[in-house]
């Protein structure tokens, strides 16, 4: 009897949770549909200038055209590869720099003012120099994608390394562990949560670097599509590029969340 | 020849504002299988002394000699147990216990088996694949004890290991640590501010005076109390007598303006 009541309460609770989830998903879909409908209507009835703001069905038909002539897949693929490469490069190099600074207290003290300056400088301003130095191609764009995240990654992860509970280090040292063991067994795993959260920030930053790089190089990619659409006053093309960016940057973000679940078991 | 000899240790802490002497010319020794407690008011350098003995800290002056050899770096002969368990939350209980063996390159089938047996003795075998945050405070501190014992140290340095636990768990763990150490004939140095704990567990209690830390008095616990389990010792009629004596000494140290 008593048991039965508990089970009843539990199933009612689960039902309540499911209903809540259903309700939230419902609202999310409703907002999306309402937005698209409103946009479509406003565009077709010229409440807003369709030349400038376009509308969803126009973007969708352009999508079909660009897919069938293969150019969208090419531009998206190029940008995606550049972004992923820049993202990985920025994060890995940033983490390595942070490890080097952790290793040598003196090096970290010496480099401190330079890091502050580099961090506050807008990295995209280096774009023209990078492009001339490395040539107008993938290399320059990937470098821009990486350069925008590398310094902030270094600073954030170095800070995380330094705020690791000192008693974890004490445990390792009490067993006679050396500096490398302290880093690999305590400092690095204890900093995984911080590293993951910088990954999430870096997803957004690498997209900024790569898109600006493509603006400047103007050869291929979604950034090129945006600049081209702007120059020929085809804002449907610009908006199509934005939609592609939104979709793929969200997918990348979800990828990082997947890595997070794999890496942090607790 | 004593098992551990602390020879005229002095230690000075340097900060921007001052040079402060934490320990001044302190000497004592521990025999094999002996359990010694250090008590004293705050600022008497108890924890500093433990860090020096363990080799984590190099003293400004003096020497620590273990089994006739100079000890200047954390080694295999000593195990250090901290105030809290500090188990690594990203490692399972088993991995946490094997940490010391892994760090000293001594992971073999034999040592792993011995560690698992130790876990079993502490009633932790069933949770070996769990993560620390799934365990209670008492269980976690037991895991920390296994982690410390797994490398087979001859001397255990216990830095207030029971102070973060609730009273009941603390009494049980005192008994467990006491009997485990006696069973394996290990020496131990316990830092505590609990007079009762010091009397119940030790063969000898060393009272330190503060600023800078030096030995104020040494109390020998009679054989009769030494042999009892800590829980039983606390209930012995002689216990209260010793408690009073040490309490008065400690109290006078805390009140004197030195």
TrEMBL record, chain B:
The keyword Nucleotide-binding applies. The keyword Nucleotide-binding applies. It comes from Guptibacillus hwajinpoensis. SUPFAM superfamilies: P-loop containing nucleoside triphosphate hydrolases. Residues 4-235 form the ABC transporter domain. This is ABC transporter ATP-binding protein. Keywords: ATP-binding, Nucleotide-binding, Transport. It comes from the Bacteria. SMART domains: AAA. PANTHER family: ABC TRANSPORTER ATP-BINDING PROTEIN, TAURINE IMPORT ATP-BINDING PROTEIN-RELATED.
